[in-house]
Amino acid sequence: MATTTPTPSITSTAAGASDPVPKTRFDLIPLLLIVAVALVALPLVGSATSWATLTLAGLAMGLIIFVIASGLTLVFGLMDVLNFGHGVFIALGAFVATTVMGAMGGFVASPSLVANLVAVGVAALTGMVAAAALGLVFERVLVRPVYGMHLKQILITMGGMIIGEELIKLVWGAQMIPLRPPESLRGALLIGDVAIEKFRLLAVVVGLAVFVALLWLLNRTKLGLLIRAGVQDREMVESLGYRIRRLFVSVFVAGSALAGLGGVLWGLYQQSVIPQIGAQVNTLLFIVIIIGGLGSTLGCFAGALLVGLMANYCGFIAPKAALFSNIALMVAVLLWRPQGLYPVSQR
């Protein structure tokens, strides 16, 4: 007597096929941590007016740091390259800005906001182009031979930064060069008793624009999809006819350009430029990307805001503690979340 094996019904198969794929819930806790730090600082500062001023200044500083660090986290997250020479692109962007804004003295000194924004825009664009060109040379000469070798990457890129600083000294000299914001971006706006520096408002707009653009590019475009797919399975993407090496070189160049933009903003924020400006901020950048989670754009954003707020609050409440406040913040975050606020492995 023949036996028949039961087959799944059409309805059960269709029901199984239509089951929704579970989605990872977005983690709000790191963003709420930023709010918590601000609220904890309020009673310690004492004055609501001073707290508001410090908070806005800290957010602006954090967004400038994010612009600088975003290029570094982009290169590590998508290329697995530890570029300790990132500071040379920052310094080059800042020094190019001094030359461009010096040549556009009429635009810088003009009382017109439009003319001033044109001067800053041209300086930023020129700094980005110069840093991108240097990034292309840096990748081909120094980084390409050491892909996949982290220790050698650290050593050779640090050497590249030292050489780059010496070349900058040859062109611009070793002395400090002033880099003041244009006329209409100096001073502060008063909203009630709260003072908001005009240049910091511009930095907030630029930082938010870079953040949104990076998220859109990496998550909503074919280029971002190809880059992320190339990180996961390079051979498969290349078998489809795409040249991953070119994509990765483009990522490195884009990261260098962002560092150049950040260098222009940081130079205007400090109102002066020295050849070591990139090396000075390099440690801060690595603190930010470690706090955020190596390679995470959103983590870099959250980490930069935390660092900016912590630096401003500690500088006001306990100036001596400000020297090590960011390191203490990094230690506290890593004790809580050893892989950072937004680990890439959990995305």
Series of secondary-structure elements, N-terminal to C-terminal = HHHHHHHEEEHHHHEHHH
Please give the count of helices. 14
Overall geometry comes to globular
DSSP E strands, number: 4
Q: Could you report the average pLDDT, rounded to the nearest whole number? A: 87
Q: Estimate the strand proportion.
A: under 5%
What portion of residues is helical?
Answer: over 70%
User: What is the spatial order of strands in the main beta sheet?
Assistant: 1-4
Rg, nearest Å: 23 Å
Largest sheet: 2 strands, antiparallel
Distance between the termini: 55 Å
What oligomerization state is this entry in? single chain
Describe this structure as you would to a colleague:
By secondary structure, the protein is mostly helical. Helix content is 72%, strand content 3%. The protein has 14 helices and four strands. A two-stranded antiparallel sheet has the order 1-4. A two-stranded antiparallel sheet has the order 2-3. The longest helix has 32 residues. It is globular. The N terminus is likely disordered.
Quick overview:
The protein is mainly alpha-helical. It is built from 14 helices and 4 strands.
Write the layout of secondary structure elements.
Blueprint lengths: L9 H8 L11 H17 L2 H32 L6 H18 L1 H5 L3 H31 L6 H23 L4 E2 L9 E4 L2 E4 H23 L1 H11 L1 H6 L4 H27 L1 E2 L3 H16 L4 H21 L7 H12 L11
Antiparallel strand pairs: 1-4, 2-3
Helix pairs in contact: 2-3, 2-13, 3-8, 3-11, 3-12, 3-13, 4-6, 4-7, 4-11, 4-12, 6-11, 8-9, 12-13, 12-14
Quick tags:
347 residues; 14 helices; disordered N terminus; two-stranded antiparallel sheet; single chain; mainly alpha
